[in-house]
């Protein structure tokens, strides 16, 4: 699964993408997560399975979702707290949900040691 974490310039999304990769590794999930500046999204969208928009881009969700739906790519807006979160599990779960990915079998371990489900 390929996740694009989108922000204005790609700087803050780099940290979120790194945390997502760590969370995916802890769960043994085949996930790649990459930062993507907004102005590069159109060219990178076709290869993605899920797009996570920075909270400051929430006002663009409808337009991005329309384009992403045509390509079969799930989209979600990250919560405001995501950039201060030390673990990437919440962002990973949001991306898996947006992409319609099936839940992981067994008892996966969260990278922050917390429960994997509510």
UniProtKB/TrEMBL annotation:
<dbReference type="GO" id="GO:0009401">
    <property type="term" value="P:phosphoenolpyruvate-dependent sugar phosphotransferase system"/>
</dbReference>
<keyword id="KW-0762">Sugar transport</keyword>
<dbReference type="Pfam" id="PF02302">
    <property type="entry name" value="PTS_IIB"/>
</dbReference>
<keyword id="KW-0808">Transferase</keyword>
<dbReference type="InterPro" id="IPR003501">
    <property type="entry name" value="PTS_EIIB_2/3"/>
</dbReference>
<dbReference type="InterPro" id="IPR013012">
    <property type="entry name" value="PTS_EIIB_3"/>
</dbReference>
<protein>
    <submittedName>
        <fullName>PTS system, cellobiose-specific IIB component</fullName>
    </submittedName>
</protein>
<feature type="domain" description="PTS EIIB type-3">
    <location>
        <begin position="1"/>
        <end position="105"/>
    </location>
</feature>
<dbReference type="InterPro" id="IPR051819">
    <property type="entry name" value="PTS_sugar-specific_EIIB"/>
</dbReference>
<dbReference type="InterPro" id="IPR036095">
    <property type="entry name" value="PTS_EIIB-like_sf"/>
</dbReference>
<dbReference type="GO" id="GO:0008982">
    <property type="term" value="F:protein-N(PI)-phosphohistidine-sugar phosphotransferase activity"/>
</dbReference>
<dbReference type="GO" id="GO:0016301">
    <property type="term" value="F:kinase activity"/>
</dbReference>
<keyword id="KW-0813">Transport</keyword>
<keyword id="KW-0597">Phosphoprotein</keyword>
<keyword id="KW-0418">Kinase</keyword>
<keyword id="KW-0598">Phosphotransferase system</keyword>
<feature type="modified residue" description="Phosphocysteine; by EIIA">
    <location>
        <position position="7"/>
    </location>
</feature>
